Amino acid sequence: MSTPPRVPERPDRSVRPERTDRVERPDPAALRRRAAAVLTGLDPAAVELGAAFAEAGHELALVGGPVRDAFLGRASTDLDFATSATPDETERILAAWGDAHWDIGRAFGTIGARRHARRGRRGPDGTTEGASADVVVEVTTYRTEAYDATSRKPEVVFGDTLDGDLSRRDFTVNAMAVRLPDLTFVDPFGGLEDLAAGVLRTPVEAVQSFDDDPLRMMRAARFAAQLGFTVADDVRAAIEGMASRIEIVSAERVRDELTKLLLAKDPRPGLEVMVETGLADHVLPELPALRLEIDEHHRHKDVYQHSLTVLAQAIALETGTHDEPTGPVPGPDLVLRLAALLHDIGKPATRRFEPGGGVSFHHHEVVGAKMAARRLKALHFDKDTVKAVARLTELHLRFHGYGDGQWTDSAVRRYVTDAGPLLERLHRLTRSDCTTRNRRKAQRLSGAYDDLEQRIAELREAEELASIRPDLDGEQIMQVLGLRPGPEVGRAYRWLLELRMEHGPQTPEAAADALRAWWAEQQDA
């Protein structure tokens, strides 16, 4: 394809939200050149789809994230389109264009399709020409949608113009489109200028936009994290005034936005938007609750800021890269990030001012584990995620006893066994939790954890720590003690596991002798 998209100039806006950072942004002209490079590389099958809709008398436009990403220099594999065709008409066109099509949400006007890769022709020099990858598309009829004040589901009404469809989008940077097949750029709300400035604004009044779909408030926080954009003043003010309306949205939709936010390269800006606007009070209230009052003697650190720092440090310890995750904790790792953010949420409930001016948070890890589990369940996270985050929260302080004195091999075994498959994440959470500015203390803690990891490695090599089991199995226990299956076998198994933890591996004979002696004591008792 050789025809570049036609991207008209737009006049400068007289009023723009002020930028508070010093991030250098490309000018709109540079973004146009970048988008042209991406869009001219759009798969020919997508352009053919535009021609098919035009031939049937309908409009088709590439919309939303794929257009925004083109201006950011990113190509999208899944393509979102808007059309003037009805869902039934869309389905007929897609059935003829693609190799498969499906009903994604007919009530919402969305039909999906896939066109398989074309092999292409082999040229005289042996190379293949004209080959393409699979093209997956979602095509949605122009629409408007809004929440009823008492409903958790949006009401959908189909529209008849592209500009009207774009007006219902969440932010101007997502309200740009490219008409197909002629690749004409459409930007009725100044999204290109906002993209260049790094500002999140709504196509219509922010209050109206968030009233239509309260989830857009969460998207503002998510895009602040994903794109590194600031939130326009009127958008921020609208969130502050309407934050409680997020409660009308289903927990699953809120959870999905929070997950995308946390999996961004830098979640901090998005979390700050949530906390500063009051949105977090209704989504993740344990986070703003960490902003404990700093007493005049500064007897404890700001737990909220500490938690954000721990999150950033944990992300830095994920293995591989954000785009190419590899290693024992490939990033972005949702469990590690949730645990880093929530590890201290038990502190407000357990804070005590001690005689002499000290502050304590006794058992905050146990309280915090229960709080984390309750919050994640309320957000409908899956059971494995809830269990893992709660367990990491509960274990995050365990290491601090290591520096007070040399752990026995038994203590090291218990640390590994209690962490189980979460051990690599626990390593990173524990290291990230050191945010002291005292360089000597930081070096001491880091050295102590280096030593602990070395001992774990040595014991693992000698004893296969990851699969610690008693030296006798259930059948052998029943044979040694002359028991039938029942609770006594379980008690004996657990006692042998404790013996294994405390003294390391033993021969079957020695384990049997110790088991007989223990059992005799139980009978005497």
UniProtKB/TrEMBL annotation:
Which BP terms in the Gene Ontology apply to this protein? tRNA processing
**SMART domains under this entry?**
HDc (SM00471)
State the InterPro entries in the record. Answer: Bact_CCA-adding_enz_type3_sf, HD/PDEase_dom, HD_domain, HDIG_dom, NT_sf, PolA_pol_head_dom, PolyA_RNA-bd, tRNA_adenylyltransferase
Q: Where is the HD/PDEase domain?
A: 299-477
Pfam family example for this protein?
PolyA_pol_RNAbd
Q: Where is this region: Disordered?
A: 1-29
Coiled coil (residue ranges):
442-469
One of the entry's Gene Ontology molecular-function terms is: nucleotide binding
Keywords (alphabetical) are: Coiled coil, Magnesium, Metal-binding, Nucleotide-binding, Nucleotidyltransferase, Transferase, tRNA processing
CC cofactor: Mg(2+)
Mark out the compositionally biased spans (Basic and acidic residues): 7-27
- Asked whether the keyword Membrane is assigned, the reply is no
The record's section on PANTHER family has: CCA TRNA NUCLEOTIDYLTRANSFERASE 1, MITOCHONDRIAL
Know the name of this protein?
Answer: HD/PDEase domain-containing protein
